[in-house]
Amino acid sequence: MQVPLSAYLILSAFLFLVGVVGVATRRNALIIFMCIELMLNAVNLTFVAFARFLNSMNGQIVVFFVMVVAAAEVAVGLAIIIAIYRNRETMDVAELNLLKW
Amino acid sequence: MEIVLFAGFALVASVAAVLVVTRRHAVYSALYLVITMAALAGIYILLEGYFIWIIQIIVYAGAIMVLFLFVIMLLDIRQEDVLWARRDRGQILLAALLSLVLLVEMVLALGRSALSGAQTAPASIQGFGTTQTVGRLLFTDYLFPFEITSVILLIAMVGAMVLAKRQVK
After folding, report:
1. Between the CA of residue A99 and those of A92, A94, A95, A96, B13, what are the distances in Å?
2. Tell me: the pLDDT tens digits for B1-14?
3. Which of B66, B81, B96 is the last residue of a domain?
4. Whole-prediction pTM value?
5. What CATH number should be reported for the domain holding residue B42?
6. Closest Cα in chain B, distance from residue A67 (Å)
7. Of chain B's two ends, which shows fewer C-beta atoms within 10 Å, N or C?
8. For B54-95, how does the pLDDT look when each residue is reduced to its tens digit (9 = 90+)?
9. B70: distance to nearest CA of chain A, Å?
């Protein structure tokens, strides 16, 4: 008795939606960023599950590239957060409202 | 046995993911995210991703999350986040409600779709998921994206240095 494909996909959907709720709900910029990483991980799980069940290596190669892009994004995003914190002394995205009408 | 392992890893990943979103201080969220990534690495082993799981541990849990913790410690954030501020309550409720609807919809769609024809995994090709296979693919079929990723990493390095540099007054 094997684990069916839908089990992996449902787990991935749940992790993705937890990440979405985190991005929509929290005010701390670092935690929002961590929820974005959670969403990327959920998508990686979907790719690896489909790679296994369609018996194709393409899914795992895509996961490799997603990890590279995520690493680059984290580096730049954290540099932005550091720059914001240095200028405004706050991590709260509700206070970054200069462009708000 | 595989079902027991998958259930264990899935439970750990789900609980840790919910805890990431609901902690007051950023350090606890970062540590729970490391646990989530480690549980996902375990699931990758079950899916025969023998190269991907070690890359997940090294790159995600070992580099990206360490970078997060560096920044949290560097900025020395002492004040704790207000978890559910009074004026955000409508937005939080709306986000939770819509996500719940989407989750139910996804579970129904994924549980009974044409995917149920592929419920059991076919016998894997020779060397599926090994480093050798990934390496061979990266240097033949995916050579151009592989070279482009080196440019992406260079851009990220330069960008991070420029953004985080202290301005000389």
Report:
1. 15, 12, 11, 8, 37
2. 889 999 999 999 99
3. B81
4. 0.91
5. 1.20.120.1200
6. 7
7. C
8. 999 999 999 999 999 999 998 877 666 666 666 678 888 888
9. 10
